[in-house]
Design goal:
- The protein has 193 residues and is of the alpha+beta class.
- The chain folds into two domains: 46 residues; 125 residues, Immunoglobulin-like.
- Helices cover 27% and strands 28% of the residues.
- It has two helices and ten strands, in the order H-E-E-E-E-E-E-E-E-E-E-H.
- Strands 1, 2, 3, 5 and 8 form a five-stranded mixed β-sheet that branches. A three-stranded mixed β-sheet has the order 4-10-9. It has a two-stranded antiparallel ribbon with strand order 6-7.
- Strand 1 and strand 2 form a beta hairpin.
- The radius of gyration is 27 Å and the shape is elongated.
- The structure holds dinuclear copper ion (CUA).
- The site of dinuclear copper ion has 9 residues, from loops.
- Dinuclear copper ion binds next to loops.
Length: 193
């Protein structure tokens, strides 16, 4: 037994040195990957102005369509007396109400949305608008659209068999055109009537 250990000792030490070196190399690679991921999160957070969910605000799903903020006549875009623009919308299997949303360019726009059946969500084109819509909760999101034009707004949470057909359009109007349309105080949308 004692004769075996001196002869096997050198190869053992050599393989240990190799495995330590390999492990250290992997540790450096993993640390580099983690550093890249953290830098990516910081970059996208700052560059795209990604925002965490604002706060927890609940809404009664049973009376959603009957009373309160999300009745059908209150959905769409509203210009408040304080000059603030609010878009109210509901997601349901498999559409958004309203199906076509009007917003102004170069003005803060606050979205307030909820879902009536399953979890939905939406993103708008190449903007930073990206939120989930969860039954019983109000999602809020404030952003500024820098350019006028039309954007697509797909549902981005799998919500059932009709998920990929669930999307709305967003019309970004020049500020002056929007203000002249919204001055009456009624709820705006671009759904063809
Ligand atoms: Cu609604 Cu996916």
């Amino acid at each position: 037994m004692s004769a075996a250990s001196p002869s096997s000792a050198p190869p053992d030490h050599a393989s240990e040195a190799v495995s330590v070196a390999a492990e250290r190399r992997w540790a450096y690679i993993v640390m580099a990957i983690i550093a890249v991921l953290i830098l990516m999160m910081v970059f996208t957070g700052l560059h795209w102005a990604s925002m965490p969910p604002s706060r927890v605000e609940t809404v009664d799903i049973k009376t959603l369509h009957i009373k309160g903020e999300f009745v059908e006549s209150n959905l769409g875009t509203a210009l408040g007396s304080d000059g603030k623009v609010t878009v109210r919308l509901i997601a349901q299997q498999y559409s958004f109400v309203p199906q076509c949303i009007v917003v102004p360019a170069d003005m803060p726009v606050t979205f307030r949305g909820t879902a009536s059946d399953a979890i939905h969500g939406f993103i708008i084109g190449r903007t930073n608008v990206n939120t989930m819509l969860i039954p019983g909760f109000v999602a809020t999101f404030t952003t500024i659209f820098p350019r006028a034009g039309e954007q697509l707004m797909p549902c981005h949470e799998y919500c059932g068999t009709g998920h990929e057909a669930m999307w709305a359009r967003v019309q970004v109007l020049p500020t002056a055109e929007f203000l002249s349309k919204a001055r009456g105080g009624e709820r705006l949308s671009c759904v063809p009537s």
